[in-house]
Design brief:
This protein is mainly β. The chain contains one helix and eight strands. About 10% of the residues lie in helices and about 35% in strands. Strand 1 and strand 2 form a beta hairpin. It is globular and about 35 Å long.
Length: about 140
């Protein structure tokens, strides 16, 4: 359980259960995109796998100042719903810069064809489809 409320742009650690191996996963950073839910937040995974030029990955060029240990990218598809009680640690690792967050929002708009969120506003309800298709749910027991 966290002691502070997650907010858009925050980078938190969460347990990522692999979609193809129930009960198996790893701890990874995630970027909070929508923190308006009472029980859960909508996130995008952060990965260290280089994915240059792919539209569903956004490079975090200032990864060190964001609290990350290695060069990283935000994976905007699939989005992941995380229960608030499954966010690890008492506070975020760091926060995406506004310029990187705006790139993530633009990528969300092109990949998911959703309206672009404002950096200080929650994502529209259309982003809350955690049960649908290839979307993976993070932090489930």
């Amino acid at each position: 359980m966290t002691s502070c409320d997650p907010a858009p742009r925050d980078i938190w650690l969460a347990y990522d259960e692999f979609a193809d191996h129930e009960g198996v996963g790893k701890v990874r950073p995630v970027v909070i995109l929508d923190a308006s839910g009472k029980a859960s937040v909508i996130t995008a995974k952060v990965t260290t796998s280089a994915n240059y030029g792919l539209s569903d990955f956004v490079e975090i060029s200032d990864w060190e100042s964001c609290g990350l240990r290695r060069p990283s990218w935000v994976q905007v598809e699939p989005l992941v719903e995380v229960r608030r009680d499954k966010l690890l640690r008492d506070e975020p690792l760091g926060q995406l810069s506004l310029s990187t967050y705006e790139l993530v929002c633009a990528a969300l708009g092109s990949v998911n064809q959703h309206p672009l969120p404002e950096p200080d506003k929650p994502l529209p309800g259309a982003m809350r489809r955690g049960e649908e298709g290839s979307r993976v749910r993070l932090g489930h027991a």
